[in-house]
Amino acid sequence: MMLRLTPEQISAGWDVARPLIVQSLPASLGVDSGAMANILKSLLEEESQLWVYYGTPERVEAGAPLGIVMTVIMHEPVSKVRYLLVYATTGIAPGTVEDYEKGLDTLRSFAEAKKCSQILAYVDNEARLRQLQAVGGVKVSNLVRL
After folding, report:
1. Do the Cβ atoms of 68 and 90 come closer than 8 Å?
2. What is the pTM of this model?
3. Where does 2-134 sit in CATH, by number?
4. What is the pLDDT of residue 32?
5. What are the domain boundaries of the chain?
């Protein structure tokens, strides 16, 4: 089970969410306080989305999340394609393949409702890559920073 947070929930829980987002972003981004202010603004203005995944309703009731996911809908200007980008994701507690599949189903439904043709994620963590491959993810390219 994965729930999308409202701007009010994000604002109230920012002290908890902020370090989780920071730890999930690639170090190459050079995340500083200005970047985090931009991320918060994007979330509060609903330009991006913050999700908490729990796995089961019992974990929701217990307030015991497995992790968070931040997404943003991207509009590729040349081909005019829309896609859902998993901007950041991090685990809080161990989950199962079934937990990840349920979370991915939620993202697929959201992407479809927003007319996105696919879901993409930048991953520079081998363990996260293996988790995504276990639920059907396919590594399609390598990003090169110049």
Report:
1. yes
2. 0.89
3. 3.40.630.30
4. 87
5. 2-134
